[in-house]
Design goal:
Blueprint: H1 7-24, E1 28-36, E2 44-52, E3 59-61, H2 76-79, H3 89-96, E4 100-102, H4 112-117, E5 123-132, H5 133-136, E6 161-171, H6 181-216, H7 218-232, H8 235-257, H9 266-280, H10 287-298, H11 306-327, H12 332-348, H13 355-360, H14 366-376, H15 385-394, H16 405-437
Antiparallel strand pairs: 1-2, 1-6, 2-3, 4-5, 5-6
Length: 445
């Protein structure tokens, strides 16, 4: 992996992700995480593999007796796309930084066993674990030499991310589909794994820098000031991950309370109507139309606080529609449809705390329900320890029947801990730097 984290820590993090996926997705029965080493070799190597029993209670761990990807692993040159060689899903995931889903093993174009032995493999989904280059190397990483693909093109050179691992989940035959809810869960958990590995990376860098400070005194002070200040600057990144997790909770909550409501799918219907209006205007293929189509589709993946989301819709969708309609007016009825679609987008942001919808949901105490909606729809502008503590406490309550409640609770605990570490680290750094700059001796702790 491009991260410098102890092997046991990496294995534990990977096992946690596999365990979560296997227990949450009833049709999944096996999971494996592959480490992707740093460029240019980018050696793909199995880290851990787990198989759940038929009762779905116990997971057995261990690597297969033989595999190309068992330690010491398989270098990029051996699994990339190559003329005259079977195509591998691993090569696709690593080069393109995109997932691969084998819905129908009989027609999987990247099944090596099917191409070589005419044997079907399992239905499976492979998801790359991505970390931004800037975050991984704190803006001052090594000048990496990225390898080339079979067309002699340099990969990753212009991408913001690096692939540090690939998650592979096996499913019962024909129970997995591309872009299904299961693949979205795996993608989100891959973000969680990337976050966890990055947090270990930052913490380990910080400890190493502190030891160097004790050994090298003033010279180490320069190293500490540079590396730790960069790490501390990532507090904003931690806050972004917390907001992402809260958005995921809002999305789960809205699916729950709208399950039997006639307003379910309001956001999706509104986006579809606006997309169709664009295409009917002949604006679906030009640059301006493509831009707006992409923005409207991207809104489907957003779950912001209501007021913040409404401002986003006004700035990014409604304003663009105003410009389009000024340039190419529609008749009154079609313009009303567009305005109705935009209004529906705004309304969809408030459904999760709509009094009538909440009143119809009676599987949770009223007081707890009100407090929960107040928390997850709060537009918090900074890290708030009390807010996070209370959110974590409510996520322990079994009456909050969210599908990934426990996983979200653990993620918030990890992120809160990381934020606290960053705060303590900043205080310790300032104190140590002051001592060194004043010429005091530092005793290694």
């Amino acid at each position: 992996m491009a991260t410098k984290v102890y092997k046991a820590v990496v294995e534990r993090a990977c096992e946690n992700i596999i365990e979560t996926i296997l227990f949450c997705l009833p049709n999944a029965y096996k999971g494996t995480v592959y480490e992707i080493g740093p460029p240019p070799d980018m050696i793909a190597k199995r880290i851990t593999s787990g198989v759940i029993d038929e009762e779905r209670r116990t997971i057995s761990w261990g690597l297969p007796e033989w595999s190309d990807y068992n330690p010491p692993g398989k270098p990029w040159i051996e699994y990339r796309d190559e003329a005259g060689r079977p195509l591998e899903a691993m090569g696709w995931c690593v080069e393109n930084q995109k997932s691969w889903t084998a819905e129908d093993p009989r027609n999987d174009t990247r099944s090596v066993r099917l191409q070589v032995e005419s044997v079907w493999e399992d239905s499976h989904h492979m998801e790359p674990v991505l970390i931004p280059k800037e975050d991984l190397y704190s803006g001052n990483g090594p000048l990496l030499q990225y390898p080339r693909n079979c067309k002699r093109e340099i990969i990753w050179q212009n991408k913001k991310y690096v692939v540090v691992a690939v998650i592979k989940i096996h499913f019962r035959p024909h129970t997995i589909k591309t872009n299904s809810s299961e693949t979205r869960v795996i993608k989100r958990l891959s973000l969680s794994l990337g976050t966890e590995l990055l947090s270990y990376q930052l913490r380990q860098q910080s400890l190493e820098a502190m030891r160097e400070l004790a050994q090298d005194k003033l010279n180490s002070c320069n190293v500490l000031a540079h590396s730790l200040r960069n790490a501390i600057a990532k507090s904003g990144f931690i806050f972004s991950l917390i907001k992402l997790e809260l958005g995921f909770l809002r999305d789960q909550w809205e699916r729950l309370v709208l399950e039997h409501s006639d307003q379910q799918g309001m956001k999706q219907k509104a986006v579809h109507a606006l997309n169709e209006a664009l295409k009917n205007m002949g604006k679906g293929s030009d640059d301006q139309g493509k831009d707006l189509l992409g923005i409207q589709n991207r809104f489907l993946d957003f779950s912001p606080p209501a007021e913040q989301g409404e401002k986003w819709v006004c700035a990014h969708i409604e304003e663009r529609w105003n410009e389009l309609l000024a340039e190419k007016p529609l008749d009154e009825e079609h313009e009303k449809e567009v305005r109705r679609g935009i209004d529906e987008l705004k309304r969809s942001l408030y459904l999760g705390r709509d009094p009538d919808i909440l009143a119809a949901y009676d599987k949770m105490p009223e007081g707890l329900k009100k407090e929960w909606t107040d928390l997850i729809y709060r537009d918090t502008g900074q890290l708030d320890a009390q807010f996070l503590d209370r959110s974590i406490q409510i996520l322990q309550d079994p009456s909050l029947n969210l599908p990934y409640r426990e996983k979200s609770r653990k993620s918030l605990i990890y992120l809160k801990t990381l934020a606290e570490i960053m705060g303590e680290l900043e205080q310790s750094t300032n104190s140590v730097l002051q001592q060194v700059l004043n010429g005091s001796k530092i005793q290694e702790r």
